[in-house]
C-alpha cells in the first residue's frame, strides 16, 4: 500500500568536538546543502523538512526547529520535529520517509544534529526530578550494570569489548568525517585506558561530537532526477517499551527483537547475517556490539561475542557481516544525529558511495538506532535493488 | 487517500497547577476514558501511538519517556513522539495510516507548565545567539503583534475584548475550562494594561493537563461500531523566525495550510482556533477566510485554558466531538506553535453522512 521511496541525497558535516566556525543554523545548513548537492537538487525541489534532535536541553534551545526554519529553507513549507531519545535520528528518517511513502509529498529533506559543545549533555541528563530516582552517572553509568549482566550470562571473554573499541576506531580511520581518527589503535591501548564505569573503559565509550546529517528522500517517480544511485527503502520499523515493567530484560530488550523482526519481514530478510551485506548499528559503548548481534538475530543468544572475536564484523579482517564500517557511534557521537548517521551510512553502502569504508558489492544494509535506557528502537533496511 | 476519522477525544481538567501529579498520572485517566469510548482495552488494540510534549515545560530531559509507562506498552508498541503540540502527532499518525502501516492510532499530548515561568521559558525558543539572550518573552512578542494590528487600524481594543468576553462566556459550558464567566466588553476594557496593548485577560492562562484521542480508518471505526467525525483535509506550514521579515498582522502559513486543507470548500459551522492571545483569533479568522456564520471557539478556546503541547490536539478533538454530537456538520481545527503564530496546522472535519 505504501508508495516506493528512496534516499537520493546524503550530506554530513565533519564530526568533531567543537564546530566553532558555525552557529547551530550554520551546522544544519552545511549538512543540508551537502545532501542537496549530492542529490543534484536545490531548495525549491524540497516539499517539507523533518528535523530530529535529542533533548532540547543539550543546546539549551526550546524547540529549535522554529529558529532553524530559515537555515533549512523551510519558509512556507511544512516542518516537523521528532524526538524519540537517542533513537531520534532513526525515527526522524522514518517519519520523513512516511511523508513520501504516504503519497502526500514527493520529495523531502530530513536533518538531525547535535552541537554538544554549545552546552553540557551530562548536566542535561542529570538534573534531579521530583519523585524519580536521581541518577548522576550519565549514560555509561546507566548501561554498565546491564553490560555486566550480559557478560555474566554469556561468559564472554573480558576483551570482547576491547576488540569492538579497536575495530570501530580502525573503521573510523577509513572515514574522513569520523570524529576520532586513531589509525594505529591497539587492543593494548584500549585496555590501558582508564576504567570509567566497570567494565567500560574510556576508549570503550563514544566521544562527544558536534555534527549534523541530512538526507533527501524522494518518491520513485522523482528518483531518476538525481544523478547518483538511489538507496531504496525496503522496510522501516519502530518499537517502544516502558522503562519499568515486571520481567523487562534490559540485556536483550523485547522492543529491539520485535522491531528487527518487523523490519526484516518487510524487507524479505530471513537470515540477517546472510541476507544483509553490512549493518550500521547504534553501539555507543563497546559491549553493545555483541549484545545487539544477539538482539538483532545475527547470532544466537549468548554467542554474539564470538562473531566479534572471530572478526566477522570487521572490515579489516574481511568479516562476512561488517558492522559500523563508518566507525560507528564509538568514532562520532553527535547524539541527535547518531541514529540518522547509521541510517545514512547504510544507504551510502548500498549506493556504493562509502569511499574507503565501502563494503565491496554491498546491496542490502541495515540502519539501526536505539535510545533512552534501551526502550526505544528504530530501524530501516535499504537496498540497491528496487523492490 | 484513505478516509481517516476521529473516534474519541478526551481532555483532563485544565488547571493552573496539577501539583504532585506526574505525566503518568496526568495521562492515565484520559487514556482510560478514550479507550473505553472506543470499546478498546489498551494501546495493544491500536496499530500506532504518537504523542507531543516539550521537555522545557517540566524542566526535564526526556519528559515523554516515562509517559510510555502509563500505556501498558507490553508487548512493545509502535510508537513515536514529536517535540511539538500533539496536533503534529496527529499529523504523523495520519501519514502512517495513509502509507498503510496502521489502521488506527492513539494520540496524546500533555503539558505541565506550572513548575516554571512559561513566558520566560518560551523566550528560549528564539535565535540562541542574537535573540534568546535578550529574554524577550512570548507575551512581549504577542504585544508587538497586537500593537501592529491596532496601529494599522485592522482591529480595536474593543474587538480584542469581544474575543475574551465570548471565550469566557462559551467556557461556562465547558466543564474542563480554567477561566469562565460573564464579562462585558466595557468591564474588560476597564482592566489595567499588562504588557501594553495586552491586558491580562488578552493572554491565555498558564495551565497543566493532558488530552488524548483515538483515530482510525473509516472501516475500522465501523468495525468498532462507534460514531465518528471524518477528516477531509489537513496541512501544516511554518514561517520565518526572523521577526522583521514577517508581517505580524497576517498569518501566511495559516492561509496556505487552510487552502491546502480545503477550508473554503464548504460552509464552516464551527472553528476551534488555537489563539493564545485575543487578537490572534482575529488574524486566524481572516487567514482562514471565516465569516460571522462560523461559531468560533465554542469550548472557550485556549483563552479559557491552555495546556501547551495538548491544546492543538484538543482543538481537533473539540471540533470532532461537536460533529459527533450532531451540533455541527463541518468544522475547522487549528493548532499553532512558536512565537506570534510562527507555525500553524489546519484540519477540516465533517460529519459521517
Question: Topology, please?
Answer:
The complex is a heterodimer of chains A (387) and B (353).
Chain A: E1 5-12, H1 24-39, E2 48-52, E3 79-82, H2 88-101, E4 107-115, H3 121-126, H4 138-154, H5 160-172, H6 187-192, E5 195-197, E6 200-201, E7 210-219, E8 231-240, H7 254-267, H8 272-275, E9 278-280, H9 288-295, H10 304-310, H11 328-331, H12 335-350, E10 364-371, E11 376-383
Chain B: E1 4-11, H1 23-38, E2 48-52, H2 55-58, E3 79-82, H3 86-98, E4 104-112, H4 118-122, H5 138-152, H6 157-170, H7 185-189, E5 193-195, E6 198-199, E7 208-217, H8 218-224, E8 229-238, H9 252-261, E9 270-272, H10 278-287, E10 295-296, H11 311-324, E11 330-337, E12 343-351
Parallel strand pairs in B: 2-3, 2-4, 9-10, 9-11
Antiparallel strand pairs in B: 1-7, 1-8, 4-7, 5-6, 8-12, 11-12
Helix pairs in contact in B: 3-11, 6-10
Short overview:
The complex is a heterodimer of chains A (387) and B (353). Chain A has 387 residues and is of the alpha/beta class.
Order of helices and strands of chain A, N to C?
EHEEHEHHHHEEEEHHEHHHHEE
Q: Which sequence of strands runs across the widest sheet of chain B?
A: 3-2-4-7-1-8-12-11-9-10
Mean pLDDT over the full residue set of chain B: 96
Count the beta strands of chain B.
12
Most strands sheet of chain A: 9 strands, mixed
- How much strand of chain A? 15-25%
Oligomer: heterodimer
Q: Low-confidence parts of chain B lasting 5 or more residues at pLDDT below 50? A: none
Total count of helical runs of at least 4 residues of chain A: 12
Shape of chain B: globular
Poorly predicted runs of chain A: none
Distance between the termini of chain A: 13 Å
What is the typical, i.e. mean, pLDDT of chain A?
A: 95
